[in-house]
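SAMPLE LOG
Freezer: B-3
Tube label: C17
Construct: single chain, 191 aa
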Amino acid sequence: MVLAGGRARRLGGADKPMVSVGGMSLLDRSIEACTGAGKTIVVGPHRATVHQVHHVRERPPHAGPLAALAAGVRWVRAPFVVVLAADLPFVRPEAVAELLRQAAGSAIEGAVMLETQGRDNPLFAAYRTVALRRIIALTLAEHRSLAGLPIRVLTRSLALRYVPDVAGVSFDCDTWEAVALARACLKSKAG
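STRUCTURE (predicted):
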């Protein structure tokens, strides 16, 4: 599942998932990292992509990542769901596979990428679908709405394993400076 519904305030409101980095949109880069998925769900406004995806929207639009996650997980039939933000220019299928492998551990409800700065990224993770649904239902019962709630409401209630990012795949494009850096890195790798 790729979450692509944010407002991109630090990018001046640009359509961040459609920003091109290395000749490909950020959205398509996140989708390509999930090549082994039975179904790829994109939560956010409908956008053109070269991949077969199922588009859904959070209610209300722009209600935040927790509401987006709830909208997308309704369509998941697999025992695990990979959750990726649509702003990860260096995400790779190998990183997704490692998160899934780590999430499959007994008594573990998910695996979350630890960014190179040491901060966990719940939008670069693999979760047990049943655990995600359980916590979303409990949170909804407690708060009556998921709109505007931080994603940490979810993650602090799950038994998670944290996977260190040793390859720099957790870098995200939240600013134009980060976009420029990602473009330069990908250009130097291609050249």
